[in-house]
Amino acid sequence: MNPNTPKKKPLAGGNALLVRVAVVGGGLAVLMILIVVVMSALTPKSSTSGLIAIAERQQEIIRITTAANGQTTGQDTANFVATVNASITSSQQQIIAYLATHSVKINKKVLALDQNPQTDTFLTNAANANNYDPALAQTLTQQLNTYEGLLQTTFKQTSSKSTKQLLQGCYTSASKLLVQAKALSAGSTS
């Protein structure tokens, strides 16, 4: 009421209500972003792409061992091929069933994505040179090393206990097969 008192200037040229709404809206947006960040940090990480890559590698190993059936010359190699085929087929069925329970279906085209024609050429040339068993042992050792690496990587990327348990079982099996493959390779080179 004092005429000498300076009048307060409203914020933003008289739009004080608009400024308040903008500040509250901005605060709510920041709060929502924080909630999303916290929720994403607490939810289990998806391992779907890793599991699909594992199933693809398993399919390539199965394809190689199926093609090798009847081609091997030594009984040790034939036994190893049969063991690898049965073990990897079983592990692949578990992976595919697990993915199916999480609404992920894999068709044959996806499974065949890891197929490598150079492997076929290498093994055909080895068979022609009467060197099939050592070449097959070398190929399966490489395949199992890659497979084991995929299992390790996917295991580290997931926080799901059930996925970790599945991957641990596959890894244990792959490790045992890899020991056999290395022993077979060592035996075939001597």
Question: What can you tell me about this protein's structure?
Answer:
The chain is mostly helical and 190 residues long. It folds into two domains: 11-42; 48-189, Ferritin, core subunit, four-helix bundle (Ferritin). The chain is built from seven helices and no strands. The longest helix is centred in the C-terminal third of the chain and has 29 residues, at 161-189. The mean pLDDT is 86.
Key features of this structure:
single chain; 190 residues; mainly alpha; Ferritin; 2 domains
Outline of this structure?
This protein has 190 residues and is mainly alpha-helical. The protein is built from 7 helices and no strands.
Q: Do you know the CATH topology of the largest domain?
A: Ferritin
For the terminal residues, how far apart are their CA atoms? 108 Å
Strand pairing plus helix content: what structural class? mainly alpha
What series of H and E elements makes up the topology?
HHHHHHH
CATH-level-2 architecture of the largest domain: Up-down Bundle
Radius of gyration: 30 Å
- The total tally of domains equals 2
Shape: rod-shaped
The major pleated sheet works out as: none
What share of residues is helical?
Answer: over 70%
Tell me the strand percentage band. under 5%
- The CATH homologous superfamily name of the largest domain equals Ferritin, core subunit, four-helix bundle
